[in-house]
Design brief:
Elements: H1 13-19, E1 25-27, E2 37-47, E3 54-64, E4 68-70, H2 72-80, H3 89-104, E5 108-118, E6 121-130
Antiparallel strand pairs: 1-4, 2-3, 3-5, 5-6
């Protein structure tokens, strides 16, 4: 019997890539000026730690690189790694910010978690960090 996607009952290659992911960076090659990098992740999911129901959000990341930039594939896998985690909206947004600050040490960074309406409430969390 053939299985779709090449899995024989084990993890799929995408699941393995997400599980083994580490955020990666590369050297900022344009240090003659400050510039802004923006990412939008419109299909973010995680789980509510109280109900177990899925939460959906758009995550927006905006930063001014100093010495390093984030590698996009690693960021994609990192973001997808939240899909099975039970985590509050505030914690998601701040964890992403903390992990990117630790990796990149940017001049400025802002992470916005714009969560879909649940129970008639729309939640937007904004976390910021700037070098001193």
């Amino acid at each position: 019997m053939s299985t779709e996607g090449g899995s024989k009952g084990g993890e799929l290659y995408g699941e393995i890539a997400i599980r083994n992911n580490e955020l990666e960076r590369f050297e900022n090659r344009t240090r003659v000026r400050r510039y802004t990098v923006e990412f939008t992740c419109p299909e973010f999911t995680c789980l509510c730690p109280r109900s177990g129901f899925p939460d959906f959000a758009t995550i927006r990341i905006k930063y001014v690189p100093h010495e390093f930039c984030v590698e996009l594939k690693s960021l994609k896998l990192y973001i997808n790694g939240f899909r099975d985690q039970k985590i509050f909206h505030e914690d998601v947004t701040n964890r992403i910010l903390d992990d990117l600050v630790k990796l990149l040490d940017p001049w400025d960074i802002e992470v916005v978690g714009d969560f879909s309406v649940r129970g008639n409430i729309h939640t937007v969390i904004t976390s910021k960090h700037s070098k001193k």
